[in-house]
Design a protein that fits this description.
Layout lengths: L3 H15 L7 H4 L1 E4 L6 E7 L4 E9 L7 E13 L2 E5 L3 E12 L8 E12 L8 E4 L5
Antiparallel strand pairs: 1-2, 1-8, 2-3, 3-4, 4-5, 5-6, 6-7, 7-8
Length: 139
């Protein structure tokens, strides 16, 4: 058992080491997350109240962004430390929330909040291998 000042330092370290995992409340996660793409497609994840979620995929022909094919998939979500689990009928996706996600994959400097896909359980998911940025975009 640690005693004295060493025990207090250890206790503070244990407490602080857990803070980043619980730094985001479920309410702060609610919102719209979307891919940023110059291609003819877009994927949006809407995390709603009462654990409801919707994955919206849109695609369009080159030069014709007004006529879109839209697919909607209902899901449920839950927060688990600093990640989000999105569960649809045939798939479970794990996405890590990053308050300071680097914008370098967009060719920009800086950071912005977003979700990074970590794992899919089940069938192929529209969220596979994506980074979704929290809207409104500030970049």
């Amino acid at each position: 058992m640690l005693k004295g000042i060493n025990g207090k330092i250890f206790g503070i370290w244990v407490l602080l080491s857990w803070l980043p995992s619980y730094a985001f409340s479920e309410n702060s996660m609610i919102g719209v997350y979307e891919t940023v793409s110059e291609s003819e497609w877009s994927i949006r994840l809407e995390l709603k109240k009462n654990s409801r979620a919707e994955i919206i995929s849109e695609s369009w022909a080159p030069g014709s962004s007004k006529v879109r094919e839209v697919t909607k998939l209902s899901a449920r979500w839950k927060k688990n430390r600093n990640s989000v689990e999105v569960k649809s009928k045939e798939t479970t996706d794990i996405l890590e929330f990053r308050k300071e996600n680097p914008l370098d994959e967009l060719g920009k400097l800086g950071v912005a909040p977003g979700l990074v896909h970590v794992k899919t359980i089940g069938k192929k998911s529209p969220l596979d291998h994506l980074t979704l940025w929290k809207k409104p975009f500030n970049f």
